[in-house]
Amino acid sequence: MENNVIILAGGQGKRMKTNMPKALCNVIGEPMLEWVLTACENAELDDICVVKGYEGQQIEDYLAQRKSKAKICTVMQEERLGTGHAVMQAADFLKAHAEGNTLILCGDAPFIDAETINGALELHTEKDCGVTVVTSRVENPTGYGRIIRTEDGISGIVEHKDCTPMQLAITEINSGCYWFKTADLLEVLFDIKPENAQGEYYLTDCIELLIAKGKKADAFISSNPHVALGANDRRGLLAQNDIARYEIIGKWLDEGIEFCCTDGVSIGNNVTIGHGTKIHSGVILRGNTTIGENCNIGNNCIIENTTVGNGVNLNNVQAYESVIEDDVKIGPYVQLRPNSHIKKGAKIGDFVEIKNSTIGEYTAVAHLTYIGDSDVGSNVNFGCGVVTVNYNGDKKFRTVIEDNAFIGCNTNLVAPVRVGKGAYTAAGSTITTDIPDNALAIERGRETIKEGYAEKKLKARTEKFEAIHGKSEEK
User: What segment(s) does the record annotate as region N-acetyltransferase (predicted)?
Assistant: First the structure.
């Protein structure tokens, strides 16, 4: 039996005050839509239709750049006339999958999970239901539709504003997630009417129509307390971010990861952290980032799509799409731009930027240095203020520095250039030609001393100062 998914992602979210679809607003660095898609893929559902609407091209663009094994198509909802109307736009998709079951999800409810999806499907198929509603029990159900249960299932969903006093006491709520038998959904989908104050087509009306036709309806209670949580404004989005942030931190605490302070800490869903690692305040780990064992990730590090080895010490480091091998020490105030590879035991000190470069084993880049488009060997020493001059205004060129070289302070290496094994550059040199192995390169202007020159300059400066501030009294 073929199962498929329809994700409703056409909402504008006016109260978000943004020019993007609400489903593309971020929770922990990922669009809410991405969370929903990931849950579907984790549940091994790989035939997905996304209903787009407001700024639909942004949805298309996001899906186009996304790496996925799932087969994802989109349909357009030109007018936003309710959840039922959104599903109507996917009628052709439903007809092409009429032999299976269809999961309907909200693209702005990011906390749906694979366990809930599969648990609801199991109940749905075991009881041969026409529809199964995913529900949650909450302490404060205000604003949510209540689930009306019977001995053998449910009889419907009552919206909060329509509840009787007895129904208001019900704490089981509708999450907005449903499994439908696809053929049954098609049978009633176009029978729903916009007979409500909003003039919209409600998908929940399909439940009563199916029950009226003798189809079974039931509800699966998710153990996830946040499965129903959406966001209608920035406050709601912030609440989602806080929930996600603490849920993920809690997971890593259970794995034995030490957090010195959780203030400002944000860890993405796809991040992995090894045993014995310590995370300090302000750390942001995003994307497909891997942190090894026994690392110290210091204050205010931002690590994105980067692999970090074991025993690494980072302090105020920003690293993007890079590799940091074992026993490396970096920081403070270091930026690793994409395609940087820092090999075992290297030391990168303060105020250093590295881009598209390899730094060899046990090489030291102490401070105030820019290394771009370079291949640096092992046990190389960089003095303060070294710059690889890689760009001529038109093209970029590579610098090669071989093993055991010593680069003196304030050296400019004008690429393309090669520094041989064991070679030295004298402080203050601008190097434009290759340096042979074990050679010393010196490029400096001749020093000239003019006796008495400074005395004349000092006299002029003193007179100018006194004209402005007055003559100082002698002591």
Answer: 256-475
* Residues 123-133: tens digit of each pLDDT: 999 999 999 99
Do the beta carbons of residue 408 and residue 429 sit within 8 Å? yes
| Residue 467: alpha-carbon gap to chain centroid | 60
Contacts (Cβ under 8 Å, ≥6 apart) of 194: 81, 82, 200, 201
Nearest CA among 313, 250, 306 for reference residue 280: 313
Alpha-carbon span 338 to 410, nearest angstrom: 25
pLDDT in tens, 57-70: 999 999 999 988 88
Cα–Cα distance measured from residue 333 to residue 337, given in angstroms and rounded to the nearest whole number: 13
Annotated binding site for acetyl-CoA: 390-391, 427, 444
Would you name the residues annotated as active-site residues?
367
Q: Single out the residue of 349, 351, 442, 353 nearest to residue 363, CA to CA.
A: 349
Distance between CA atoms of residues 303 and 318, nearest Å: 6
Domains of the chain: 3-221 (3.90.550.10), 315-441 (2.160.10.10)
